[in-house]
Amino acid sequence: MPQTTLENRTFIAVTGPEAEDFLQAIITTDLPSVGPGEAWPGALLTPQGKIMFEFLIARGDDGFVIETDAASGDPFAKRLTLYRLRAKVTIAKLDANAVTVFWGETAPSGAARDMRFAKAGVDVVRAPGAGSNTDTSAYTALRIAHGISGGAEDGDATDFFPHDLLLDRNGGLNFKKGCYVGQEVVSRMQHRSTARRRIVTVTADSALPASGAAILAGGKDIGTLRTVEGSAGLAVVRIDKAGDAMASGTPVMAGDVAITLALPAWSGVEFPVTSDEAAS
């Protein structure tokens, strides 16, 4: 079975009789939808609707276990504690500092299915703890091939709205669960169809520049490379600007490398064409 260990991860357990109600009221994920053995994406947002912390969340003993990047562990746990007030919950970081990811075969016992990949029809499971293989290139290539955002695995996620990373399409953002932090802003974006930045796959005939390189259309900045593996990568771009460029035959570049952009098929999102010149 292909597998790799992702280091610099951390786990936070939120347990107690009110754990589900407590988390349901503050995060983007709809917790009643989280079944046993499933790890769902989600985020804790700022009141302005931007991502403060992104994570995967699974049911655990007497509550939930949240997986996030190691740098976010302490501040995330502290933020949850600030929101706790009188809720009957316990918030504690766990000892595991890595996760082993498996794909392509039957899940090992105790692992949780990564529901981001499930949306793309790919079986990927995650288990706390380190394995023997720390080469992440195959896993990164798998994420890129299917347009799966890794949140902080792709760099700082705090400049983004959840729509930008397709949380509205992969089960990480729910519009029917009621109020949570930042809900008013992201609901308005949804109902007004104002989400313009999206994560896309990037491919080229030669090696891409490093993560952080600007994506240019006609010399104008329309986005940024997030993760690169050889001649393929993930970027967040303005899909309206990208759609216009592709419709008009304007080259799209990453540095001095000509690139092709594609939205993940599983997302159902398409590049819009907004300008009369591009549409003609």
Tally of separate helices: 7
CATH topology of the largest domain: Gyrase A, domain 2
Side by side, the strands of the main sheet go 1-7-9-8-3-4-5-2-6
Question: Unreliable stretches, pLDDT < 50, 5 or more residues?
Answer: none
Tell me the series of helices and strands, N- to C-terminal. EEHEEEHEEEHEHHEEEEHEEH
Q: CA-to-CA gap between the ends?
A: 50 Å
Proportion in helices: 10-25%
Q: Structural class of the helix and strand makeup? A: alpha+beta
Q: Tally the structural domains.
A: 2
In percent terms, what proportion of residues is strand? 25-35%
Annotated CATH architecture of the largest domain: 2-Layer Sandwich
For the secondary structure, the number of strands is: 15
Q: What's the level 1 CATH class of the largest domain? A: Alpha Beta
The profile of the biggest β sheet is: 9 strands, mixed
- Radius of gyration equals 19 Å
Give the overall silhouette: globular
Mean pLDDT, as a whole number? 94
Q: What do we call the CATH homologous superfamily of the largest domain?
A: Probable tRNA modification gtpase trme, domain 1
Give your account of this protein's structure.
The structure is a single chain. 21% of the residues lie in helices and 33% in strands. The chain is α+β, with helices and mostly antiparallel strands. The chain folds into two domains: 3-159, Gyrase A, domain 2; 196-279, Aminomethyltransferase beta-barrel domains (Elongation Factor Tu (Ef-tu), domain 3, Beta Barrel). A nine-stranded mixed β-sheet has the order 1-7-9-8-3-4-5-2-6. Strands 10-13-12-11-14-15 form a six-stranded antiparallel β-barrel. The model has no long low-confidence stretch (mean pLDDT 94).
